[in-house]
Amino acid sequence: MKKNVLVWLSFLLVTLLLRAYSFFYSVIDWDETLYLLIADAWSQGSIPYVEIWDQKPPGVYLCFLLGKIFGAGDLLLGIRVLCVLAVTFAAYFLYRICQRLAPNSGAFAYAPGLLYIVFTLVNQGLAANTEIFFIPFVTAGVWCIVACVDVATGTWRSRPWLLIIGGVLLGFAFQIKYLVAFDLLAIAGGIAVFQFLTVPLAIALRNTLRIGALLLLGFVLPNAAILYYFHAQGHLQDLITATLSANVQHRTHGDVSIVKTAGKFYLQFRDQFILWGSAVAALFWIARGTRSNAQKWTVLVLWAWLLLDVISISLTKKFYAHYFLQALPPLCILFFVVWAPLYSNLQKASRFAAVACLTLFVMLTTVLPVVEETVMTLYFRKVEGNPYWNDASAEIAALVKQDLQAGDYIFVAGAQPVIYYLTGARIPTRFPYPPFFLDDHFRHVSGIDPAHEIRSILDKKPRYIISRKLPENTFYSLLAPYLAREYDEVKTIDGRTVFRRKDNAAVAGKK
Question: pTM (2 decimals)?
Answer without folding.
Answer: 0.94
